[in-house]
Each structure stands twice: as C-alpha cells, then as structure tokens.
Amino acid sequence: MSQELNMPLIRLLVVKDWQLFQKQLAALVLAGIVALALLGLAKPWSFYLGSLLLIVVLVAAACFAIGTSLLTERKEQTLAFVMSLPVSPLDMTVSKLAGNLITFGVPFLVLLLGTLLVILGTPLPDGLLTMAILLFGHVLLAYCLSLTVAMQVESEGWNLFVMITSMVLINPFIMLLGQIDSIREPARGNDIVWSTPALAILAAQILLSLAALGYILWRHRRRAAFY
Amino acid sequence: MTAAFAVSGLCKRYPQFELKDLNLSLPEGTVMGLVGVNGAGKTTLLRLLTGIAAPDAGQVEVLGRRLPEAQVAAKRDIGFASEDMRLYRSQSLDWHMQLMRQIYPAWDESYAQHLIQRFDLNPAQALAGFSHGQRVKALLMLCLARRPRLLLLDEPTTGLDPVARMEVLESLADVLRDDQRSVLFSSHNTHDVEQLADSIAFLHRGQLIAHADKESFLDNWRRLLCLGQAPGNLKAWPELAQVRAAGSQIEIKVRAWREDLPQRLDAIGLSVQRADPMTLEDIFVTTVRAGGVA
Amino acid sequence: MHSEAILSHLLLLSASDPRPMYQQIVDQITARVMAGDWRPGQALPSIRELAASSQVSVITVKRAYEELERAGVISTRHGKGSVVAERSEQTRLLLEAALQQHLHEAIAQALRLGLDRNSLHRQLDAALDAHPQLQASEGSTP
Question: Does B218 touch chain C (CB under 8 A)?
C-alpha cells in the first residue's frame, strides 16, 4: 500500500480552502487592525477594548478556519465531491491540516507580530510582552485541540463545545497568570522578563499543540479508505 | 475482453444492512444499469467501486487496479457523481472548471462549453443560485468533460424535470460511441435503464438478485391475460412470478417465458388471450413484491 | 459520413411505440430497404453511432442488426460495418413467410374468439382503415 502523497493535488486543495476563506480573512484583518490601533492608544479604556477585540478576532479566526474547511464541508456535503478527486485519505488529512494551519496561521501570525510591535513601539509597558505571548500561546493550543477534535468527530455540537470551552478558558487563564508574581509584576514595567513559570507555560503550550497535530497525522496514517 | 470493473466475494457491513458476497463485473465499452429500492446498497456499491469505501471482505478491481489501495490512480480515470454530492455554494461553475482543469489533464474545454450550452447553465453564477436540476447537470458536466474511462453515476436523472432528464440521457448516450468507455448508473427511473443499459443488475437488501443482459432479461418476462380457472398450485410454478385472479380473468406475470407456455397453460384449462412484454418498472416491482427472486 | 447522417435521421424511434425498441429499428430499416429508399450496397451507420444518435443501448442496436442480417436485409462485413444487402428473392420470400405466419396466428386468435370469416374480414378492414398509408387496393412497390 503506497502512502505517497499526491503533492500537486494537496497544493490545489490547500489553495481551494484558502480561496474559500478570503472574505472572512479580510474581515478579520480589518478588525485586527482596529484592535491594535485601540491598544496603541495606550489609554486604560482603549487598552481594555483593544485587548478584548483582539481576543475576539483570534477566536473568530480559529472558528472560521476550522468551520469553513471542515465543518461546513461536511454539512454542505462538498466532502463527497473532494473524495471523488484523485486523493487518498492521507492526502485529504494532510491538505486539511496544511490548509487549516495556513488559513488560521496567517491572521494569527499577523496579529501576533502586530501586537508585539504595538507593545514595543507605543507608550505601553514593554513588560506586557510576556503576557501577550502567553495569551497567543493559549489561543494556539485551544485551536490545535479544536482542530484535532474536528478532524475526528463529525458532530457539530461537540465541535462547537470544544471550541467554545477552550476559548472561554482564556479568562481563568489570564487570572491565573495574574496570580503568578513573576509574571504579573514585570508586566507594569518596561523590562521584558521571562521567568521560569512563564517559560514553562509557553513550552507546555507549544509542546501540547505539536502533540495534538502529531496525533492527527498518526491516527490518519493507516486509513485505507474514507468509509 | 477487459473488464471495466470486477468485484468478487464483496462484503460490506453497515448498521442498517450489509452487502453480502457480491460478484459482479462490467465488460469494457458497455453500460450497466443498477436497479434497487432505497437502502438496497446501490450507493455503497458505487462507493466501493470508486475506492472511497473499503470492503470488509472480497476483491474490488477497477480498470485493472486494486481498490482501495490504488484509489488515487483509479480515480483519475473514473468519473463519479452521486446524489449526496454538492459543489461549493459560494463559488461559480467557472471556478469549479478551473479546479478540474488543473487536476485532470484530459479535460476537454470545448466539450465542456458544448455541455454548458446544451444544459443551459450559467458558468459565472454562484452555485447557491442553481436549482436542483441545474446542480445535477453541473456535476454531470464536470464529470463528462473529462471523458473518463469509467462513469459511475448514482441517480443521474432522479429529481429532474422531463426536459432536463432528456438532456442528461442524450449526453450520456454520447459515451456509447467510444468502445473503451464504460458506464454504471443506478436509477429509480427504470425507463432510463431500459433505454440505455446493455446489462441490468438488481440489488435487493444487499444481494444481487438478478444480473443479465438487458434484451434477454426483458425477453424472459411476459404479462399474460388468461381466461379460465387457475388451479391452486399454479402459484408454485417456478417460472411464474405472480398470479392474480379477478373472476375468470387471470393475470400471470411470467419470469421465464418459453414459447410452449401458452400450450401448457391451455392443458390445465387456462386459455391465453394476450401475452405482452413487461416494462422494466413492472418487472422490478413484481420482483421485489415476489420476495426478491428474479 | 454523409450517408450515415441521413440514415440516422430517418430512424424515428419512440418509447410510446408499443413494439420493443429492437423491433422498431428492424421494422423501420426493413421498410426503407423494401421501399427502395436505401439502395443495395449503401452503408449503414455503425452500431455504436446509431446507438449514440438515437439514445438506444448498443446491445439493442446489435440485436436489431443481427435480425436484419438473418432476414437478409443487410449484410455485415467482418470489421467493416454493415451495408444494405443486394436485393434478392430470398429476402422477399422470408418476409412473405413471416406475413403468412402472422395471418395464421390472427386466424387462430379469431377462432378462439369464435369469429366467423366475415367478422374477421371486417376486423381486417377496420385495421387497414386505421393505417391510411396501406392501400387496400393494389399499389405495386417499386
């Protein structure tokens, strides 16, 4: 059983998913710019609003990326159409993974970069950098977990549950960060400090994210057919 | 003669039903019509033939390739359109054609344009605005324009208005010209099967209850109207599928017609007034009601 | 190709016709040949070409061609397609034999119904009236 990947077709499928995502991408980038602008104003009210909007945009990016390429495909039954193309189940898995990571990854990285620039370039205390990165780390982890579930489970209900729950956990996560002295204290100053707890949390986020993605590939490696 | 596909000992189990020990093959350059009630296993069989589904037991060989292992190579030469397939609602037919052009080198642009005209489709319109009939025709067009060696079609004319149905049949008939291209289509419109198929396969509850070339299959069936009294054991005659009596008028549906049957019926007091061929629809319904023995 | 195009268009097949499709093809081609519209030696469309242009299955056209061949109306050259057969007495005799058989069957049926000779004549006249192209009086075919 050859497990060669049909690269040209995978590329096409990824481009297809990217094209389908264009409208949402434009809206997200726009909202993201507004969020960053609000952050950059560095007033208490604008900071609050801006960071809220930023989180909303990040969550939206995750939901749209997973939604359009996986959930909607199943619901609108276009999956059957794609399966009839010269693709193997492994090709599909790879293209969905790659497509998803790209459609989510682009707004994610753009916003991450933008946030870092805003923090460093404006009157905002540079020490916020650590917390900001940890926040993005949480969103990344939540996204990877939701993606893993979405690729395994067809039920829209369960998928929504996982996405919403993991994103809602941002709140308690931020509070948790606030409890840790070595993270809360430097956030007011202009020194960027990476304390051990901060590094540990970041490492855990990245490793768990990679583990989730690796699990997807491992699970789908042996599938001979779609049904 | 090479086989477009050949399945042997095919088994596939689903919670609702199962395909049991199916043996079926399609000679290259011929058309097979698959007939069966909903849930008989037609869609499952088609999925197994495309390599989308893997059998629990048995072999599937399509265009000389083992499935589902070689499904990528096989699908390059297979055109599969099923009832549950949808195109991307937010995109236009042009967008889909561009996708096809990039995937399939055998894409015939002029033929695609010809079909668009004939099917009266608007290539620039988003698929969301297409009616059911237009959607079915669009899917079919995307299949046909590649000129695939094997066409697997699940209910290609179901739900279409009579005019659209005629357009689809005419475009399917074009495939007949090429003796290297084969078609398997399942249909509730038994008339389509009767018209275009070279061979017929009846699927019922996951089993193949009949598989024969169309002309001899239809020749075997007759509907007789007789006068007389039917003896009690008439229904037990194996060549009769159904016997109905209304007074001294007896209607007999024969599944194994022989020239000497009227004589034999005459000998037991039934005089045959007329013997007519039956439509495939009638044969199908009679077979299912007779307990699925054809 | 030109002759094939003409031949295809002259075949008017319909599902509304009660006769089986292969029979319609046989009857129409036979009638044209007997009437002299199609000359001996004229090429018939290939089986697949006729199947595709009339939306009829290949196996049905094949069956029709085989019957026409048996009846001597057409002759098939191996690998080269079919042509209208050279006119021979054989063909006419075969068709007349078939007509006789049909007449015998009609008579048998009439007897079952208890019809007498005159009633059967009346039935025949009524049937002929329903077919205006068949002249009751003599009309010699070319």
Answer: yes
Q: Say if residue C33 is in the same domain as residue C47.
A: yes
On whether residue C76 sits in a domain, the answer given is yes
Average pLDDT of the segment spanning B110-114: 96
Residue B273: both structure tokens together: 């007034």
For residue A108, the one-letter residue type is F
Which chain C residue's Cα is nearest to B278? C20
What pLDDT, in 10s, does the model give residues B167-190? 999 999 999 999 999 999 999 889
Q: Is A90 part of the contact surface with chain B (CB cutoff 8 Å)?
A: no
In B188-225, which positions are buried (b, 16+ CB within 10 angstroms) versus exposed (e)? bbbbbbbbbbbbbbbbbbbbbbbbebbbebbebbbbbe
CB contact under 8 A, A81 and B73: no
Say if C140 falls within a structural domain: no
- On whether any CB of chain A is under 8 Å from the CB of B141, the answer is no
Q: Give the start-end residues of each E strand in chain B.
A: 3-13, 18-27, 31-35, 57-62, 65-67, 78-81, 150-154, 182-186, 199-204, 207-213, 222-228, 240-246, 249-254, 270-277
- For residue A154, what are its two tokens? 């067809």
pLDDT score, position B278:
93
Q: Which of A183-192, B38-47, B111-120 has the highest mean pLDDT?
A: B111-120
What chain C residue is nearest to B31 in terms of C-alpha separation? C57
C-contacting chains (≥3 CB pairs under 8 Å): B
Q: Which of B86, B139, B150, B152 to mutate to test the interface with A (most CBs of A within 10 A)?
A: B86
Residue in B72, B78, B81 nearest the CB of A87? B72
CATH class, B3-217 region: alpha beta
Interval C16-32: pLDDT, tens: 888 899 999 999 888 88
Contact B195 C52 (CB under 8 A): no
Considering the domain architecture, whether residues C32 and C56 belong to the same structural domain is answered as yes
Residue A141 vs residue C15, higher pLDDT: A141
Within-domain flag for C97:
yes
Checking ipTM against 0.95, whether it exceeds it is no
Instruction: Tell whether C67 and C116 lie within a shared domain.
Output: no
Q: Which residues of A touch B51 (CB under 8 A)?
A: 225
State the average pLDDT over residues B88-114. Answer: 93
CATH number of the domain that C13 lies in?
1.10.10.10
Query: C124 and C77, same structural domain?
Result: no
pLDDT in tens, C38-65: 888 888 889 999 999 999 999 999 999 9
Structural domains of chain C, count: 2
- Give the A window 95-154 contacts with B, CB below 8 Å: none
Q: What is the mean pLDDT of the segment spanning A146-151?
A: 89
In a domain, C114, yes or no: yes
Inform me whether the pLDDT recorded for B201 exceeds 90.
yes
Report the C-alpha gap between B193 and B186 in whole angstroms.
8
In which domain, by residue range, is C94 found?
Answer: 89-129
Tokens at residue C4, please? 């094939």
